[in-house]
Design goal:
By secondary structure, the protein is an alpha/beta fold. 34% of the residues lie in helices and 16% in strands. The chain has one domain: Alpha-Beta Barrel (TIM Barrel), CATH 3.20.20.70. The chain has a 10-stranded mixed β-sheet. It has a two-stranded antiparallel ribbon with strand order 1-2. It has a two-stranded antiparallel sheet with strand order 4-8. Helix 5 packs parallel to helix 6.
């Protein structure tokens, strides 16, 4: 069985899972890096966007497997934020970094995406803000559609309108909806400015839009931040998900881009080895299996850091609102370059040195994900 890294949930998933893309057919696409490089630069791929994406995908996977220091492939997963504003003030979210107040001009945004999207297979726009209030969202989705790249979103779904609902079901391939609890009072306390009732109304609006001829609702799951005060309610959240047709749960502890935790955030941390978490994990695992819901949740009994390592330096790029690029949206080190994109940007001196130092099982010391430690689980798979 083959696995791939899923940047939306930051976990390793099976190739056939509908979170991602099918494994390239080895009978049609060679696995040799040199042959793939030649094919990717051929006239056939220059004239056929689908062939370019498939070949570049296979090339990126192959170069990650052999740990090439200089990459011929271009990033297959693009995360980019034109700005990072949000409409909620969640209790566990630290204050926005200074660059969140930047707004990239539309001309810079468009020109950057025209370079980044054609070889890519997945696009996660506005990944540190709320995409539904982002400027130029509809135009960005249309640009992604022209480049035939699958759009993945993480959204709190509070700002949905009927117009946005139609664009959402027309252009978004999959999305995680931010829901930490199915308790309406706790929801309102944690996600200040939002409500569970509004979220449910907007899910209904998506269903109404998807009922129109030629449209269908995209794959929808839940992104839940696990806190000491909410982990006991995860089984209730899973049951709520099943009533709303939400097909996957990505449950993680607080994830920050800073080593500094406020006291309120520290109070909400818990140990994966605790008895309470183990009991909740077992119940959630059983519930998701019985209800057909995919689960990405830290397994307390998995060994740490085995089988896979982060492929970001070979497969991923993040573009910030201020125009800086790195290989991961958790990284504060700008390892690739800045706008305007120049030829060879993906092989800067810094990133080539990073690839040389990357070893199997290596975990980036800058990673701010509290549970990116080798124990995330999807059915039959594990995270790095």
């Amino acid at each position: 069985m083959s696995y791939r890294y899923d940047f939306l949930v930051h976990a390793t998933v099976r190739e056939e899972d509908d979170w991602g893309f099918p494994e390239p057919d080895a009978t049609r696409v060679p696995t040799d890096v040199a042959a793939l490089s030649k094919l990717r630069d051929s006239a056939a791929c220059a004239q056929d966007l689908a062939a370019l994406k498939l070949t570049n995908y296979a090339l990126a996977v192959s170069e990650a497997q052999v740990r090439s220091s200089h990459c011929t492939a271009m990033p297959i997963s693009v995360q980019a934020s034109r700005d990072e504003h949000c409409n909620l003030a969640c209790t566990y979210c630290r204050s926005s970094p200074p660059e969140s107040y930047a707004l990239m001009s539309w001309s810079d945004w468009e020109s950057a995406l025209e370079v980044l999207l054609p070889p890519a297979i997945e696009f996660l726009p506005f990944c540190w803000g709320e995409p539904l209030i982002a400027p130029g969202l509809r135009e960005t989705l249309e640009l992604a559609a022209r480049n035939r790249v699958t759009v993945s979103l993480i959204t709190n779904l509070q700002a949905m309108t009927s117009e946005l609902a139609e664009s959402f079901v027309r252009f978004v391939g999959r999305a995680l909806i931010s829901v930490d609890t199915a308790d309406p009072a706790a929801f309102q306390r944690i996600r200040r400015g939002g409500s569970l009732a509004a979220l449910e109304r907007n899910l209904d609006a998506l269903d109404d839009a998807a009922a129109r001829p030629g449209l269908s609702r995209p794959w929808l799951g839940v992104s839940a931040v696990m806190m000491r005060s909410t982990i006991g309610g995860l089984p209730r959240l899973i049951r709520w998900m099943s009533t709303r047709g939400l097909r996957g749960l990505c449950a993680k502890r607080i994830i920050l881009r800073s080593h500094e935790l406020q006291k309120s955030q520290q109070d909400e941390l818990f140990a994966f080895s605790s008895r309470e978490y183990r009991e909740v994990y077992r119940e959630c695992h059983s519930l998701c299996r019985s209800l057909g819901i995919a689960l990405s949740m830290c397994d307390p009994d998995r060994p740490v850091g085995i089988h896979t390592s982060c492929p970001a330096p070979w497969q991923h790029i993040y573009l910030s609102p201020s125009g800086h690029m790195s290989v991961c949206n958790f990284s504060r080190l700008r390892t690739v370059g800045a706008l305007p994109l120049c030829e060879g940007y993906y092989n800067s001196e810094q990133i080539v040195a990073m690839r040389r130092s990357w070893a199997v099982g290596h975990r980036c010391p800058e990673c701010q994900s509290s549970d990116c430690d080798g124990r995330n689980e999807f059915p039959g798979a594990r995270g790095y």
